[in-house]
Write a structure and sequence with these properties.
Layout lengths: L1 H6 L1 H30 L6 H36 L7 H22 L4 H29 L12 H35 L4 H34 L3
Helix pairs in contact: 2-3, 2-7, 3-4, 3-6, 4-5, 5-6, 6-7
């Protein structure tokens, strides 16, 4: 089994990377479509709550894809000789990925509880730390200062890391929108509330605009990885 993996390591990582990208793009589309039902005042609150629950169940797969793309990309980058940190660094990276996955799925499984809220806040903070690091190292590499190699035919890698980091910013915005959904529904459960309905409608209208930009960014990131244009 191990011999098979080492022989086909790059192909397996590439396959997993494609699967993660599919879940990311497809999951975001599913949440987008479900949002139309969440804000529909013609539906009962119970029905809208079910659609919101569906959105969370779809979103967790998108988040799993997002989280997995980074270690997969860094691992492949080392095989290609673009990303210099291998050996123990790769082991540590995958351990951190496992911890991040436990936090993410724990926040999903315990959503609506105190521990779920705590894990969700921790997950948010992982992005607040990771985003500036990714943007800094990618721009530094594109300027020729490392840590990633940026010779002819290698700059696409840093560009992909940069777009990924920028997309995480949009992802944080969309996560904050979903946090707002959860805060507004208990208010709506108390009875008709035009102000809360308006906030929900405006919140999702804003999120849809971000989502269109998000998809363009995801496709651009995928293009860099597939075509390797520079």
């Amino acid at each position: 089994m191990w011999d098979f993996f080492t022989t086909h390591e790059l192909s397996i990582l590439r396959w997993l990377h494609i699967v993660a990208m599919v879940y990311w793009l497809g999951g975001e589309w599913g949440v987008f479509q479900t949002s139309y039902k969440v804000v529909n005042p013609a539906l009962s609150l119970e029905e809208r709550s079910r659609h919101m629950e569906t959105a969370y169940r779809i979103d967790i797969m998108a988040r799993t894809g997002i989280i997995s793309l980074l270690p997969l990309g860094l691992h492949m980058g080392h095989i290609w000789g673009i990303q210099p940190l291998g050996g123990p660094w790769l082991v540590a990276m995958w351990i951190l990925w496992a911890v991040w996955m436990v936090i993410t799925w724990g926040a999903f499984a315990k959503r609506g509880t105190q521990i779920g809220m705590l894990l969700s806040h921790i997950e948010d903070w992982t992005r607040y730390i990771l985003i500036p690091v990714l943007i800094f190292v990618s721009i530094s590499s594109l300027l020729g200062h490392g840590p990633f190699a940026a010779g002819e035919g290698q700059r696409w890698y840093s560009a992909k890391i940069l777009t990924y980091g920028l997309l995480l910013i949009l992802g944080v915005v969309l996560r904050l929108v979903m946090h707002e959904w959860r805060a507004l529904f208990p208010i709506l459960a108390q009875g008709p509330n035009p102000e809360a309905e308006h906030k929900l409608k405006m919140s999702i209208r804003f999120a849809r605009g971000i989502a269109y930009l998000y998809w363009v960014g995801i496709l651009t990131t995928a293009f860099f990885g597939a075509v390797k244009p520079f």
